[in-house]
Structure formats: structure tokens, C-alpha cells
Amino acid sequence: MESQERRLVFRSLLICSAVFIQAQFSCAGDCPADGRTWVTFGAKCYHFVHGEEEAIKSYTFDSAKTICRGFKLLTIHSAEENEFVIKYSPQVWKGNVNVWLGMYYDTDTDTMRWFNDKPVTFTNWEYSPYPSDLPKVETCAALHSISGRWENVSCDEEEENGVICETAQKADPPKRKPNALLSTLVILSVVAVVGVSAGIWFVHQRQNSGSPIFTAFEYHPPFRVPDTDESCLVEAEETDGMP
Ligand SMILES: *[C@@H]1O[C@H](CO)[C@@H](O)[C@H](O)[C@H]1NC(C)=O
């Protein structure tokens, strides 16, 4: 009995905290709530695509773009952002991973451009004494997750690299208040429901087991309780007497 009660209380607490964590998560939901792990740095959210058991997952440029559909492939705009990628990569991948950069060769301007249309200001190309022999239109770029240096690689030829998706954090202050309020309401109603159910359960359990606390309140009528037929009659008479 006691252990059962304790288990119920424990379970209620578990449910409450799960709901609370869930609400917190969506409250802080400046990053997409799509079930994937997004980490923030600056004003952006990043999703490091990882395999099971830290296995390196490599993808072609096209499948990388498919994985990040709705978002962008990694773009780097500062030394700090480059540093963030180097620092966070070991949490997801073991060893060096070449990561696709969301960059393409723009034939109009004869330069590399970011997919997010921001100009390429910061670069971190590795030192290479020879110019790349890749046809320019087939030139993509990849970042070495350990050194942080960038390399020109072929966009095709079944080349496979790691993937980081990025997206801007949603800076939407007016939307956050109702969200927080809603979460609070959800938490409160869940707590209320759990509390009431627990209460009912306790009463029910005590009634069944006839525990001393409840027996104290047991009603012992001083006179004979009328049987079902009589009580119906009494009720009917009372109803008739009403104006
Ligand atoms: C890669 O290509 C870009 C643009 O063509 C060039 O500026 C850069 O130096 C190249 N990097 C390497 C390491 O070859």
C-alpha cells in the first residue's frame, strides 16, 4: 500500500517534470522544433548531422542539401563562428570530418558565394601552393573540423562529407509571451489533473483497504436504513411536496 502510494507520487512528479521540460524546450524554441538537435551560436541554430554511435555520416552535396531542406548548409561569417564549429564537432563526431560549406561558384561574379546570399567576407582557406584544378563551376568547399581550414572540393564525383544545417534563430518577441502563458496553463492543468486523479486514487484505495483514517469517518446510522423500495417512495414524496 505505502509503496504503491509512493510509486504514484513518483510517477506524477515524473509526468509533471516531463511536461515542464517539454514546455521549456518549446519556450526556448528559437530553433526549429523538428525533433532534431539544434545548437545555438550567435543568432543562428545549427544541426550537426550525426550517425548512430558517433559514426561519421557522410553525404554527397546533393543529399546534404536534401537533409537540410528548409534550412541552409553551414555558412561561416567570422573567425568566432569558424571556432564554434571546430569546438562543437568533437561532441558529435570522432576525428576529423570534412563538412560541406553552403558555398557555390557564381559564374556571374566569378567568385564563391554563400547560399544565404551574404557576401563572402571571412575566409579560412588552407594554404595551397597550386591553384585548384577543379572546373570552377564544379567547385564546392568543405571545412576540416579539426583545423578549421577550408578546401576546394568537387561538388560531384560522389564526394561525401559531413553535414551541418543552419538557420537563423527566430527573433519573434511578440510570439513568445503567449507561448510562455500557454506552457504555464498546460503545466497547471496537468498538475491539476494529476493532483485530482491522485486524490481520487488515494480515497479509492483507502476505502477499499478500509484503512483506519477512513473508518473513522464511516457512517453508522442509528436507525434502520430503508430498503430500496421505501427510499424511492420517500424521495418521490419529497419531490411531490416541492412547490
Ligand atoms: C578555393 O577557391 C577560391 C575561389 O576560387 C580561392 O579564392 C581559394 O584560394 C581556393 N582555395 C584553395 C585552398 O585552393
Automatic annotation (TrEMBL):
C-type lectin domain: residues covered: 41-158
PROSITE patterns: C_TYPE_LECTIN_2
Keyword set includes Membrane: yes
Keyword Transcription regulation: no
Membrane spanning stretches: 180-203
Highest taxon of source: Eukaryota
Signal sequence extent: 1-28
Keywords per UniProt: Membrane, Signal, Transmembrane, Transmembrane helix
A GO MF label: signaling receptor activity
InterPro entries in the cross-refs: C-type_lectin-like, C-type_lectin-like/link_sf, C-type_lectin/snaclec_domain, CTDL_fold
Protein name listed in UniProt: CD302 molecule
Source organism of the structure: Oryzias latipes
Gene name of the record: CD302
